[in-house]
Structures are given as structure tokens and as C-alpha cells.
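Deliverable D5.2: sample structural annotation.
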Amino acid sequence: MTTTLPQAAAAAAGHRPVRDVAVVGWGAIGRVVGTALAEGALPGARLTRVVDNRPLHGAPAPQADLAEALAHCDLVVEAAGQGFVRDLGTTVLTSGTDLLIASTGALTDPELAREIAEAGPGRVYYTGGAVGGLDLLQAVRGLGELTRVRLTTAKLPATLHQPWMDAELTERLRTATGPVEVMRGTARDVPARFPRSTNVAATVALAVGDPDRVEVRVVADPGATLTRHVVEAEGPHGHYRFEVNHAPDAANPATSQVVPHAVLRSLAALTGRGGQIL
């Protein structure tokens, strides 16, 4: 992207240029992120375009297709789901535009992960979303490999139902009076089966560096008024346990309420504003 004279002057004065942001996906995550940007919540970023495949009314920035957004923006925030990352992630990066990915579950496909990592000149970033402790997991990798990593996710049964489930499992979810284990596998297997509910598994895998090393257990719990994620990791250098319990988003219970605010925090770090804990 060519640096304009006002941007150069700002840089010379010790100020960072403002990022022009396109939000892709105007749902539970994108709407909160885009509205905050439009209201000036992040001085280092402004909402310039909104991309969604549905006609929008009252969006706080012009709605555009991806090509137009890439022509006007230098940063794309993905809040549209794994399909966008698979189909158009490299398109964003090869255009020279940076990409912040919320739907990390798409990256459990090793071929796609390689393509995204190698694409450019745009840079790719990932947001931590609904889970914590990722910075520590990344740090302890410097001491050696973790010998075991486990993630247990518990959500309301209705948020976990998937088209591939057979009649027996569907009935178990419908009639559950207590916790029901829905699936057990690795962070490579599980996000593909629950594309809207288990991005946390892929995010933990990104921090650990190996999706096959992360054991994932998905639990349907009719009493789960809060969505629960428990990460347990161990190695010769220590033992670690992180538990988070989030209120689900009212409009989309498959998403935790905190996720768009995690995206906004990531954007604040990218724009270099404020004293971020990185």
C-alpha cells in the first residue's frame, strides 16, 4: 500500500497512521466490532467498509463487495465464519491487505494453514477469542514441548446440534437432563465438525503449535447458562490450567459475548494504541 503524504507526516510526527478497516460479516461479532469502530472506540482504526452477502440497512459504513473493500482498506476483520477464510483468505492477503481472523477453526486444515501462512504481502493475525492463557502456552513452548494438552468445552445442547448427527445423538441432546459428551477428538478433527462452536480448539492448537497434540472434549450441558472452556496443559517444565466461563451472545448463543471485544482488543494491539499486555 502506498503511503500518502498525510500518513508520512503523521509518522514523522511520531503518530501512527489510522488503519482503514473492512468488517466482513455483520452478525453477532461483526456488528459489535464495526459499531465500536464507527463510534471511534479505537483511535487507530476506522470502519471504512462492511462486507456481507445480505442487504444491510443502517450499517455505519458503506456496504461493499470484497473487491471494493480491498481497494479502500488496509485491514480486513473476518467475522463471517470458516468458509470465508477457506475461500477468500488468501485473496485478501495477496492483495496486500492485512487480515485478522476470528474463525480460526478453518486453520486445522493443514493445506489451508500453509497457504495462509505463505500468502502475502498482506499479514495475517489471529484473535484469541473466548479463551485465555494463550500467551503463556506460547511462552512455555520455549522450554520444550508440552506432553499433553486437553480442552473441555461445555455449551447448551441446542448450540451444538449439527446436520451430521444421527437420530440417536439428536434425541440425546434434545432430552438431556445432565452433561452429555458429544464428541472427543483432536483440535484437528473437532472444529471441522462444529464450525460455529469450537474455534477455541483451533486457537489453542495455534498457541501450542500442533492441532494433533490438543485433545478436545465437547460436552452438551442443559445447565450451562455460561459457556465453559477448560484448558489443561502439562510438560516437564510445569502444569497449567485455565478455565473461563462466558455469557453466550443473546443473538447467537453459539458465540460467547466476549468474542467481539477480544477482536477489538486485537485491533487495539495492531494499531499500537494504549499500553497493551501482549
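Annotation notes: The beta strands are 19-24, 45-51, 75-78, 98-101, 124-126, 148-155, 180-186, 214-220, 227-235, 238-246. Residues 82-94 form the longest helix (13 residues).
The annotation will be released with the project's public dataset once the embargo ends.
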